[in-house]
Amino acid sequence: SDFPQIWVVALCLTFTHTVTLSVFPAITADVESATLDPTWNKYFTSVSCFLVSSVMDWIGRSTTSFITWPNKNSKLLPLLVGVRIVFIPLFMLCNVQNRSHLPVLFLNDAWFLVFMLLFSLSNGYLVSLIMCYGPMKVLPHEAEMAGALMTFFLALGLTLGSA
């Protein structure tokens, strides 16, 4: 069975997608600009949420072509994945509208852009890295099954995050 060898990276993959989809795009698309510039306000969500997310996610995924850190057996990998949970309150404390309970602690648009850059870059990098590591943690003849299992855990993370 492949699962005992890949369970850590499988759970990392699930958790990464769960955190990502718990705030993107449901919360992040509701963040509004704090500026008074009508042109920037018109394009704020398209640029700061969707364009930044797509570009940084792609850069993160591409980065694994030449940087694969931490290694596949590192205890740091689950830690990095777990630390991403901090993005949930960070985004919720941005200028999300319509709000009724939480204060806006990060009103300036720059905060949201920095959070979105780090969030998307880390998502792309960690997902790509973890998907590479799953099949590498098993014997060569088990790699195909490990890849299939990783795909299941990717879908599980998407489902949990969407829920």
From TrEMBL:
Name a GO CC annotation attached to this entry.
basolateral plasma membrane
Q: Which InterPro entries match?
A: Eqnu_transpt
- Where in or outside the cell is it found? Membrane
| Entry's transmembrane regions | 7-28, 79-98, 110-133, 145-162
Task: Provide the coiled-coil residue spans.
Answer: none
Alphabetized UniProt keyword annotations:
Membrane, Transmembrane, Transmembrane helix, Transport
Q: According to its UniProt record, which protein family does this protein belong to? A: Belongs to the SLC29A/ENT transporter (TC 2.A.57) family.
Q: What is this protein called?
A: Solute carrier family 29 member 2
